């Protein structure tokens, strides 16, 4: 009875249930090893396999044999260029982190060497990062004052760096790179912009020549602190600062206009440092309110493994800081590596990058370095200078080593105000207002997330901005899951295609049949909503038909193409929907259930309840089958009930 | 050039962009008013509209005019039946919450009256709930001891009830019913089972006749506490307890076997109380270690508005407790109402139910009642006794009122051990092991969530179980979003249908074309994964073709049917994928982008970049178009590059 005479052209396949552990292992593999990294090791004898593993974990073995002199020439140029940036930036960012400037130089010596061996990116230039430096000072400075207890504070910084490294490496080993994915593009744009604003505000201390400054980072505290000390502002410092700022911004502007000026821009920071130092040396400006770096110890990194304060009462705060700056460092480093790789059409492995950054920071924390990553500004210079491989990092490292061994006395007279100008110039590039406008045009919610992150960082704290942005992003995903769209489909004229009547205004209703499409997996989080929404669609359609006098409704076709999976709440929902549809005298028909869905429908006996002949491969076939019944046999209400019971007893 | 000669039968429509505020308001409406509750008020004159609003907010005006004597007969019987349950349960659950037993009776008088007016369910029987009672004692008992400061503790209980009500009502007014949806079916099964186990363990105090007992709820503490007091166990209490437990479980078992015994089961608790009280009265067992309720004050609820301790130093803990028990109460009450409504084929409004429960608890907190909801056990008895409307709640309320006015002295000799037996019998029904087995069979992850909730509650605390279960559920949703499936499609023989070759083993590869289907919205959380996974599919396909010697790959068709939306990270991902596909010399073709997706592709100029003629309505049409080109014009590598640049310059 019913559509028994109708021959269905295609059957919906119910894939066989895989054994539990097989399906578990394939799920785990798909979740944590989507790139199938160990494929190449299969079916290899032991010897080559060991070599492959070595190459896999230490990429330098992979590319070093193919290294050529031409490569070296390019790498030498770019290495020297980034070294000229690394020295002033290292010193500046160390002061952001409230640690001795020399630590910043140390941090540009050992970590790049480690990364050159382990990293899979050819363009990342390793170095300290402004945002993470500021974060360390902001979080840990509240616990231990860097002014009153400099030694204890420094130990905490090393400890936090150690934990950041452990955390980064574990994420990589555990293949949890997906955590970084939850920092969306919009989050990063807003967060970076906010952090750059905050870092610029902190530079007011250097530019204005102030001695005392607030420990808070939010804009209100900083402005209050600055404006309450108007009488301590030093004009010498301000004039010097503005000159250098103008010089640096001009070179930056010029290099953007004409690529020929690229070198001027790349060398501008070092030039500023040299010019500034000479100026102070000859005018003795350090006696007139222009603060200078002062004595820098000669010599390479002293070991600091014994400084790791695992027994400290502040251990917890060090771990927390480590995790936060570790994530921030990764987000920047991995994203930078990925972007340049996409540009040059090679591939970086996110999980391997995490391991490389992690080991780099663990080793760094034992050799007097603090947190390093792959900062965007330095990597961009590296890329523009034409680097070919990670050898440019080795060149930079050697240049910094030479500086440490012989040139530190030259930095004695470097004025802090020059460093402040260098930081401000670097930071202004991170405030990406064009991207914000683009976000507003493209996706309003992404814009809100971005703005939330920015406002959170600037008016609250760096952590608050991050929390706001991540919470908003996750909330959006959850809301999308909780409120999936349901569409009414209509027939595209002269075809067997069925599409949303919202999107295709020409699509036509099929008389007597309501076709609904679900656009998301059916979960506990949306099953109640979907039940209410579907019954509202049906009620609306009944009313529409009543008022227009069309053929009365007989069939509800649910197109499950968009339903990739279903859980136990979803199955219950479908059962209830079926019951309520049948109570109204209609028949529920399913179209195109996917493999996960049909498996679970089968296990829960839903297929038997609805009848296997009421499940079709496409909406088109379902409509044809329904029309077959509608035209050959119009059911009266009583007959419809019979039909139901007949179908139910199948 | 390219497919310009091929006439595309159908075009993908790009819906016009809606103005910002229009699309915002329609999104908000879809999110918070999916049931469109105010539809009936449109186009009505003021008078009827006010009446409709009154009926909407106070449903008793809706159904009272149609109330008949037949209804009343049924409601009277069911009301008296649930009252016989309400009295012993009220007293028992109050002792679970560590408050005077009389409060339990008060709580079955006022709240049912309120609910009868405001509630939209016909079957919910209002009363105190075991889990929420235990939770209150567990959370607040740690702050203020109910033994040492009974008055202060009671004030805290009223305050928490007040905040629970405010929270519930606000959720309803703010249309945030979706929060309750995040407690999945599996979470509730595990949580209820765990809570029932914990409540049963707590009854060991009553059964064993112990005076001292641990304040912790976890199984380890309870077993330790019980086993360390073996010498305080009272055999009189144990014997009495076992007898009544046997009696109650027997009637429960019988009523399940034969519906005729339903009344015996429903009246068993009251019978036990009467029998137990008589026994103690005549044997003076209260002097031999059988603890009794003792004096219960006669009279109706005293006002308690002045007891709300808003100035208390423990206010925060009261608010926290209120929110937790408020959610638990709602989850049970709303789900119970919904289930019975589905059974009788009428509709309850989740948001209105929340407002009803909320106002009921706010009023309750001012009239010496503590938290009430719609407990499953009592509502099931109500339903089985044949209730027709909420009038059964009014009948119960009047019966409880008579008890309060005249019958309280009769409970003086009621032994606590009988109450413990009543609680245990009620709780055993909540441990739904059959459902757990069903979950294991249907969905392994739901089983894990359920088990997590159970173990968390039994071995940790009630809150911990809830947190574990919700965290696992949300984690699952996020993982699903972060790792969506991608499918390779093949042609179902003798059709233009394309389906996953995993699900349909007969589906055939189309030579020279790789068809990939995405099954989820493209978000920041999965865009990196999707990029890697898609390029792996392409590489795998290239290798497969190389080894099998088929026609080499020319086209990659991305079926976007399952992509309901896309954000800015997703757009960047598509752009990168396009670049990398074109660099390999292939052409990217899109099929069936949904309205949200095509709008954003249009805004971001992706359509221009790919060429509007490379976007098709169905996979079938895309394949036809590609085949048209493949057969009429085989591109060489150079020609392919030309093709690309030609397409790009469109």
Indicate the mean pLDDT of chain A.
Answer: 84
Adjacency order of strands in the biggest sheet of chain A: 4-3-5-6-7-8
Number of helices in the DSSP assignment of chain A: 28
**Radius of gyration of chain A, CA atoms, in whole angstroms:** 32 Å
Tell me the quaternary state. Answer: homodimer
The poorly predicted ranges of chain A are: 632-650
What overall geometry of chain A do the principal axes of the alpha carbons give? elongated
End-to-end Cα distance of chain A, whole Å, is: 11 Å
Described by strand count, sense and barrel closure, the largest sheet of chain A is: 6 strands, mixed
Binned strand content of chain A: under 5%
Can you walk me through this structure?
The structure is a homodimer of 650-residue chains. Chain A is mainly alpha-helical. Chain A folds into two domains: 65-478, no CATH class; 484-648, STAS domain (Transcription Regulator spoIIAA, 2-Layer Sandwich). The first copy, chain A, is 62% helix and 5% strand. Chain A has 28 helices and eight strands. Chain A has helices spanning 20-32, 46-57, 60-63, 69-96, 101-106, 110-118, 130-140, 150-173, 178-181, 185-202, 204-208, 219-227, 235-257, 262-283, 315-344, 350-366, 376-384, 391-407, 416-428, 433-442, 444-460, 462-482, 524-548, 568-583, 595-603, 606-610, 619-632, 637-648; strands spanning 127-128, 372-373, 486-491, 498-500, 513-518, 555-559, 587-591, 615-616. The first copy, chain A, has a six-stranded mixed sheet with strand order 4-3-5-6-7-8. The longest helix of chain A has 30 residues, at 315-344. At the A-B interface, helix 1, helix 10, helix 20, helix 21 and helix 22 of A face helix 1, helix 10, helix 20, helix 21 and helix 22 of B. Chains A, B: It is found in: Membrane. Chains A, B: Residues 503-626 form the STAS domain. Chains A, B: It is a multi-pass membrane protein. Chains A, B: The chain crosses the membrane at residues 99-118, 124-141, 153-176, 237-254, 260-282, 315-335, 355-373, 385-407, 413-433, 445-475. Chains A, B: Belongs to the SLC26A/SulP transporter (TC 2.A.53) family.
